[in-house]
Amino acid sequence: MDWRRRLLEWLAPSDIGGSPADNRMARTMHVVLLCLLGLTALARLMMIPTVPDYHVTEDAAGWLTMVLAGLGIVLLRRGHVRSVALLTTAYLVVYLAGEAAANGGIRGVSMVFVGVPIVISFLVLGRRVGLAATSLAFVSTTVIAGLEAGGTLPTGMSFDPWGYLVGYAVYFLSIATFLFMVTRKSDEALALARAKEQELATLVGELEARVQERTAELRAAKEQAEAAARAKGQFLANMSHEIRTPMNAVIGTTELLMGEPLEPDHASMLETIRGSGELLLRIIDDILDVSKIEADGVELEAVPVTLRELVESTLALFRARAQGKGVVVSLAIGPAVPDRVLGDPTRLQQVLSNLLNNAIKFTEAGEVRVEVEAERLEPAASPSEREPGPTHRLRLSVHDTGPGMSPQQRDRLFQAFRQGDASTTRRYGGTGLGLVICKGLVERMGGGMEVDSTLGRGSTFCCVVPVVALAEATGPERPSPEPEAREPAGLEGSVAERAPLRILLVEDNPINQRVALQMLARLGQGADVADDGEQALRRAREGAYELVLMDVQMPGMDGLETTRRLRADPALPHQPFVVAMTASAMKDDRDACLAAGMNHYLSKPITMATLRDALRRALALRRVATPRSEPRASASMASGS
């Protein structure tokens, strides 16, 4: 079949690189010229052995015809369709006229060869040229017949030339009529096809214009959405910073006052202030988490997690609150649950905390039950050695005996700033962001949230996430704590009882300076103060400080640039342990502090516990630090905690 297709393609090529009409004319001309070349060559091959007095030189016209036919085929394949058709027609007319004059008048004219120029004219050059070629053929044969009848053209045959002329006239008329009808229908079909093609081209052009216009609109909308998302994220980060800065003074001062002897009423008021401040900070953190989830900016860890410890420590945070309401909190862990898995302990605890918080908040009496189950997964067909596939499907379920939800209320879940209904918000409070955060985090882990609730009979919230059992995992484990992260032995009560530190506090806000100094004094420490980065560099060269508490956002030289210059300063006798104290709470801020050379990160508001932890890290580093050695970043900061 392949050779047949190639033969047909050689006999009548389907495409010469032109329009459909030119391709069709090229096929017609190709067949005509091949037939002409074949017939002429066959006649010469028959005449050479059969005609004794045949001489090639006397048949130059025949051989010239074959040469020109071959040349026409070559030109035809190069796309010169109309030129080849016109020259072929003219040559055949001249050739046939010469044949008539040399071979006995009208009898020497071949009807077949006379029809060839007419066929070419109609099919290739159009109906007008075809009619002109028919008329020319009729006039030529009439002239030849008249010359022969008048004795100008000698003939040795006895026949009536006018009778031959009548036969030729009928032949020409029949061919012209048939070809005229065929080409008219063909031209009508071609005109219709061209009109449809033009209409289609117009529609395609309009569609392309619409697509380009729509693409431009979508691109502009995408850029606007991205700009809005960036502006929203920047706005939230700025608002978080601006709110955390005064909250640092409020909560810090409250914590200092609570350490003093107070009347019961005053202590209760301070506890209310501190609790309200911490609630405000949790709301801010929730809004930042929602913003990061919407922007797909949440990054997850893959470190070893002991599930039982994580769940039990999370439950411990809520037991006192549940007992105060008379709600029983229970835990059930299935036998198939692996002891340790790879995951993000902070985010897992955040999800479980949100679910527990909602369950206890909405349950007035009864029970809140946490169930942990696991289902083993089939191993992947070709697991990656570097990134092992999940081995278990972990289910963390929180059941409560609260009021439950109707189907309409369930449909409104997982929408930002929405709770079951307005009465729920008025009665229980809250922003409605907890479940949105849970859903976003669980989906980021590759899992999903499930809800089962019946009005009046309680609710069950379940997060399902794929995990990798540690015994089967090849991923890296969490690095061991650095020396500065270990608490030195014997440090009980005041951190500075036996190991005072040389501390430099770099803070531009006078109120926060006073709060930090009072906290340090409560921990038995003193500190020098620098109001900006330039003053901090001068004091660092003079004081040989072991710990620098560095505010990040300061006018002029900020904390990041100050730390970079501090690390590159050859005049320092040794490098101090630098702790960032900033109201910026995004992960990018932690990364920027780490890249600048800081060792630890404290997000405002600063509490006594976080400040004590920073002091202990600096004391632990004192044991291993050498002159001009740069302290390593603490493990907690490197992991983003």
Fold blueprint:
Elements: H1 2-11, H2 20-50, H3 60-77, H4 81-102, H5 111-125, H6 127-149, H7 161-258, H8 264-294, E1 303-306, H9 307-325, E2 327-333, E3 340-343, H10 345-362, E4 366-376, E5 392-400, H11 407-411, H12 422-428, H13 434-444, E6 448-454, E7 458-469, E8 503-506, H14 510-522, E9 528-530, H15 533-543, E10 547-551, H16 559-568, E11 577-582, H17 587-596, E12 600-603, H18 608-624, H19 635-638
Parallel strand pairs: 2-4, 8-9, 8-10, 10-11, 11-12
Antiparallel strand pairs: 1-3, 3-7, 4-5, 5-7, 6-7
Describe this structure in words.
The chain is built from 19 helices and 12 strands. Helix 16 links the parallel strand 10 and strand 11 (577-582). The protein is α/β, with parallel strands linked by helices and 641 residues long. It has helices spanning 2-11, 20-50, 60-77, 81-102, 111-125, 127-149, 161-258, 264-294, 307-325, 345-362, 407-411, 422-428, 434-444, 510-522, 533-543, 559-568, 587-596, 608-624, 635-638; strands at 303-306, 327-333, 340-343, 366-376, 392-400, 448-454, 458-469, 503-506, 528-530, 547-551, 577-582, 600-603. 58% of the residues lie in helices and 12% in strands. It is elongated. Helix 5 (111-125) runs antiparallel to helix 6 and helix 7 (161-258) runs antiparallel to helix 8. The strands form 2 sheets. Strands 1, 2, 3, 4, 5, 6 and 7 form a 7-stranded mixed beta sheet that branches. Strands 9-8-10-11-12 form a 5-stranded parallel beta sheet, with helices on both faces.
